TrEMBL record:
<feature type="domain" description="Putative restriction endonuclease">
    <location>
        <begin position="13"/>
        <end position="176"/>
    </location>
</feature>
<dbReference type="InterPro" id="IPR011335">
    <property type="entry name" value="Restrct_endonuc-II-like"/>
</dbReference>
<dbReference type="GO" id="GO:0004519">
    <property type="term" value="F:endonuclease activity"/>
</dbReference>
<dbReference type="InterPro" id="IPR012296">
    <property type="entry name" value="Nuclease_put_TT1808"/>
</dbReference>
<protein>
    <submittedName>
        <fullName>Uma2 family endonuclease</fullName>
    </submittedName>
</protein>
<dbReference type="InterPro" id="IPR008538">
    <property type="entry name" value="Uma2"/>
</dbReference>
<keyword id="KW-0378">Hydrolase</keyword>
<keyword id="KW-0255">Endonuclease</keyword>
<dbReference type="Pfam" id="PF05685">
    <property type="entry name" value="Uma2"/>
</dbReference>
<keyword id="KW-0540">Nuclease</keyword>
Length: 192
């Protein structure tokens, strides 16, 4: 049997054909599969996308992002980048062109969204990481990425409850969170 390191997983991942309706990501050499999202999840993503001006920003759902110097190809729920930096084609968006990534927490993605992806996006120097959490009815805005690899993190963190307005200075907008839904009856967690 041949051993496969993290970089070898990248090649294997590129050739993987998941079943329909399954989201697949490569997170630090680990292939992660998730079922299709809940309606609450999809409506939150749509609400955020609708509030970001299309004239200036490309707003892409489930677009693979290439994190430099990482065996990671996360697939954020929403990726925002200036329209003039959008490549003409390709599966992977280079992380230096990305202004903001958005993840909506699901019952099975809490640790990934709050810990693993936080470090991965910070390592990729993505300026803004927005975690929208329908379990805790909160937004976690992370900015000022610093560090490398697994030690990377965001130096600034702001928590805002659903229903409050969230200034997104990098995009020049204020996000209205009043229509964001929640997951009823789901056990609370302790993040961020």
């Amino acid at each position: 049997m041949t051993a496969v390191d993290e970089r070898g997983m990248t090649k294997y991942f590129e050739e993987l054909e998941p079943p329909e309706g399954v989201k697949v990501e490569l997170l630090r050499g680990v292939i992660v599969m998730m079922a299709s999202p809940d309606i609450v999840h999809n409506m939150i993503v749509a609400d955020v996308q609708d509030q970001i001006p299309r004239q200036r920003w490309s707003r892409l759902q489930t677009q693979d992002v290439d994190i430099l110097d990482e065996a990671s190809e996360p697939v954020p729920d929403l990726v925002v980048l200036p329209r003039d930096l959008l490549p003409e084609s390709g599966r992977l968006l280079p992380c230096p062109s990305v202004t903001m990534v958005v993840e909506v927490v699901s019952k099975s993605s809490v640790h990934q969204d709050y810990v693993t992806k936080r470090s991965i996006y910070a390592a990729g120097k993505i300026p803004v990481y927005l975690v929208l959490d329908p379990i805790m009815a909160q937004c976690v805005l992370l900015t000022k990425p610093a560090g490398r690899g697994e030690d990377a993190d965001y130096r600034s963190q702001e928590v805002i409850k659903f229903g409050d307005r969230l200034p997104l200075e990098a995009l020049g907008i204020e996000l209205d969170t009043s229509d964001f839904g929640t997951f009823p009856g789901v056990r609370p967690h302790r993040y961020p």
